[in-house]
Design goal:
The complex is a heterodimer. By secondary structure, chain A is an alpha+beta fold. Helix content of chain A is 27%, strand content 9%. The chains are: A alpha+beta, B mainly alpha.
Chain lengths: 200, 395
C-alpha cells in the first residue's frame, strides 16, 4: 500500500467520524422519545391483547354471557382455562357455589353435546396466565362471545399463584368500579387446572 | 503372564478427551504440535444472536475449521404440531422466527388453507401483505442494528430501535401484540385495520424514508464499516446454490430469486416492486440487498394501502378444521429467505406431519465454508451478514 493510499484511508476514516458525530449531535439536541415508564405511560393500548377477560351480559354487569360450555378450555393450546359449570339440577341460590365445588370439574369434551338449559353462568372461571400464549383461540371459539382481550398490560406478580386469575371476580369488581384482585381471595377455592391431562 | 503380553501388545489407549467437553468437541482433535487451538464461540457470545455455538480450530488468529453446533433451543415444533389441532398450532408459528413471525404465520395458515381449499377475502389478503411487509422492515432494521453491534458500532442499534418501535406500535394496532404474533387465522386475519392505522403508517413511511439517508451517512458510507464488510465472506453463486441459500444471502450473490416473484402467492402479483440484487457476493452486498429491501417493502405497503378494498376479513370455513387426506406446501418469502411449511393430513383433527423449512438453517450451513481461512473478527462479520435467527434454525 502506498503512502498516498494510507493517507486517503486515514482521511476517509476521519471524515466518517465527523459525519457520525454530526448525526449524533443532531439527535442529541432533539427531544427524548423514550417513554419513561413509572412516570409516563404509553397511550396505545386500545387494541393491545392482554389476558382474556369475561364480558358481562348487557342487562346484568355481574353475570357473564358465558354458558360454561367449555369450548374455550378445549380450544386452548396450553390448557390454561378452567371452567366449572353449575350443577345440573337447579338449586337454591345460596348453596349453589358449595354444590358446584362438590361436583366441580373441568367439563370434559364428551359432555358438551348435552346442551345445557338457558342461563348457565359458570360458578368458577380461572385463567392461568403463566401458561397463556395470547393466541386468541378461546376468544374465537366462544359461542356466546363472552371472552375478550383485556388491555391489562401492567401485571405484576411474585409467584405463579399471582397469575392464576379469577376472571369472574375480575369481571364483578370491574362492575363495582374497583380494581380487580390479582390473586384469588381463598386459594383453596381455586381449582388446579388439569394441565397434565393428555389431549383427547 | 498371558495377560501381561496382551496388555503390552495393545495400542496405547486413546487420550481421555472428556476434558474437551462434549462429543462435538471430541471430533476436533488437538494438534499434536500444539500450534492450533480449539475455541468455543458461544453458546453465549455477543455476536451469535441466540444460543449458537461455533467450534473453531484456530491457527493464530486464522480459522482452520469452523463447525456450528445446533440444537440448544430445539423446541420440537414439528412434533408439537402432531399433538394439537390445526388451530392450536398457530401460536407456535409466532415463536419459530420471532423477528419475522408473520411470515411463518402466513406459511402455516397458507398451507392449511391450500389443503382445505379455503378462500381468503380480498381485504384480509391486503392486511396480510401490509403487516407482513412491515414485519420484514422491522426484521431488517433489527438485523442492521445487531450486525453493526457485532462489528463494534453501538450507536446505530439505537436509531434502528427507534424506527423499529414505531413499526411495532403500528403492528400492535392490527395484531394486538408486539413480537410473537399469532394474528392470522385460517381464511383471514383476526383483527381489521383500526381507523388510525393507515394515517399512522403513512406517517411512519415518510419518517423512515427521511431517516434512510441518515443511515447511509452514518453507516453505509463509513470507512470502517466498509473495511469490515467489503471483500469479506465471498459467497459465490455455486456455493449458495449447493447449500440451498435463499433470501438476501442468495440475492447478494447475484441471483434474483424471491418467492414472491418466483412462486407468486396471495396478491403479490398486483404490486410493482424490484428484487434488489448485488453481484459483489460479499458481506457488503448482502448489506446493500437488505437496505434496498426496506425501500421496496415500504413501496409495497404504500401500494397496498392505496388499493385496499372494503369487505370481510374472515372467509367462510368450519370452526373446527378437519382437512381431507392429503398434503400441501406453502412457501413465503421471509426476511431471511424461503420459508416453507408442509402439512400432511390423515383426515383427523390434528396434522399427521408438519415440516418447517427454515431458511436460516441453510444459510447457517454456509458458514463453515465461508469462515475457512478468515480471521476470527471477519468470521463474526460473516456470521452477522447471514442474518441468523437461532430459534428458527433449531425449531
Amino acid at each position: 500500500m502506498s503512502v498516498s493510499n494510507s493517507f486517503k484511508d486515514a482521511w476517509n476514516y476521519a471524515k466518517s467520524l465527523l459525519i457520525g458525530l454530526g448525526v449524533t449531535g443532531k439527535n442529541f439536541v432533539k427531544p427524548t422519545i423514550t417513554v419513561i415508564y413509572p412516570w409516563q405511560q404509553v397511550d396505545n393500548l386500545s387494541t393491545y391483547r392482554g389476558h382474556v377477560e369475561l364480558i358481562p351480559k348487557d342487562d346484568d354487569p355481574f353475570t357473564p354471557r358465558c354458558v360454561a360450555c367449555g369450548a374455550c378450555a378445549d380450544a386452548c393450546p396450553s390448557r390454561c382455562l378452567s371452567v366449572v359449570a353449575p350443577p345440573k339440577t337447579p338449586k337454591p341460590k345460596a348453596d349453589a357455589p358449595a354444590a358446584a365445588l362438590v361436583e366441580g370439574r373441568v367439563i370434559p369434551k364428551t359432555e358438551k353435546a348435552a346442551a345445557p338449559e338457558k342461563s348457565r353462568a359458570p360458578v368458577q372461571f380461572f385463567l392461568d396466565y403463566s401458561l397463556c400464549s395470547l393466541c386468541g383461540q378461546c376468544e374465537r371459539v366462544c359461542p356466546a362471545k363472552s371472552l375478550r382481550f383485556s388491555n391489562n398490560v401492567y401485571l405484576i406478580g411474585h409467584s405463579r399463584e399471582d397469575f392464576r386469575i379469577d376472571l369472574l371476580a375480575r369481571m364483578r369488581s370491574q362492575a363495582d368500579g374497583k380494581s380487580a384482585p390479582s390473586r384469588p381471595r381463598t386459594p383453596e377455592s381455586a381449582p388446579v387446572p388439569e394441565t397434565e391431562k393428555e389431549p383427547a | 503372564m498371558r495377560d501381561q503380553t496382551a496388555a503390552a501388545a495393545a495400542p496405547t489407549p486413546p487420550v481421555d478427551m472428556s476434558f474437551w467437553g462434549d462429543s462435538y468437541a471430541a471430533r476436533f482433535e488437538p494438534d499434536p504440535s500444539g500450534e492450533r487451538m480449539i475455541v468455543n464461540m458461544g453458546p453465549q457470545h455477543p455476536s451469535t444472536h441466540g444460543v449458537l455455538r461455533v467450534l473453531l480450530e484456530l491457527d493464530g488468529e486464522y480459522i482452520v475449521r469452523a463447525e456450528p453446533v445446533l440444537g440448544y433451543i430445539h423446541r420440537m415444533h414439528e412434533w408439537m404440531a402432531e399433538n394439537r389441532t390445526y388451530a392450536q398450532f398457530i401460536p407456535n408459528m409466532g415463536r419459530v422466527d420471532y423477528l419475522h413471525a408473520l411470515a411463518w404465520n402466513w406459511a402455516y395458515v397458507g398451507a392449511v388453507e391450500r389443503l382445505t381449499g379455503m378462500e381468503v377475502p380480498e381485504r384480509a389478503e391486503y392486511i396480510r401483505v401490509i403487516t407482513c411487509e412491515l414485519n420484514r422492515i422491522s426484521s431488517h432494521l433489527l438485523w442492521w442494528g445487531a450486525y453493526l453491534l457485532d462489528l463494534g458500532a453501538f450507536t446505530p442499534i439505537m436509531y434502528a430501535f427507534d424506527d423499529r418501535e414505531r413499526i411495532l406500535d403500528i403492528l400492535q394496532m392490527v395484531t394486538g401484540s408486539r413480537l410473537t404474533y399469532s394474528s392470522f387465522t385460517f381464511g383471514g386475519v383476526s383483527m381489521d385495520l383500526p381507523p388510525q392505522f393507515i394515517p399512522k403508517t403513512r406517517e411512519f413511511i415518510a419518517t423512515l424514508r427521511s431517516r434512510l439517508p441518515m443511515y447511509k451517512d452514518l453507516v453505509t458510507d463509513n470507512g470502517i464499516l466498509r473495511g469490515r464488510c467489503e471483500g469479506i465472506g465471498i459467497l459465490d453463486l455455486d456455493t449458495a446454490r449447493r447449500y440451498g441459500a435463499t433470501g438476501p444471502c442468495l440475492r447478494g450473490s447475484g441471483q434474483a430469486y424471491d418467492v414472491r416473484r418466483a412462486e407468486p402467492y396471495s396478491i403479490y402479483d398486483r404490486f410493482e416492486y424490484r428484487i434488489p440484487t448485488e453481484s459483489a457476493c460479499d458481506a457488503m452486498a448482502r448489506y446493500y440487498v437488505r437496505l434496498s429491501e426496506i425501500d421496496e417493502s415500504l413501496s409495497i405497503v404504500e401500494q397496498a394501502m392505496d388499493s385496499i378494498p372494503e369487505g370481510p376479513i374472515q372467509g367462510k370455513g368450519p370452526r373446527k378444521i378437519r382437512p381431507p387426506k392429503g398434503e400441501a406446501c406453502f412457501a413465503v418469502e421471509g426476511a431471511r429467505g424461503k420459508i416453507m411449511v408442509m402439512v400432511q393430513s390423515d383426515g383427523g383433527p390434528m396434522p399427521y406431519r408438519v415440516k418447517l423449512r427454515a431458511p436460516g438453517f441453510s444459510n447457517l450451513s454456509l458458514f463453515a465454508e465461508l469462515a475457512q481461512g478468515t480471521l476470527v473478527s471477519d468470521a463474526v462479520s460473516i456470521l452477522g451478514s447471514l442474518d441468523l435467527v437461532i430459534p428458527e434454525i433449531d425449531r
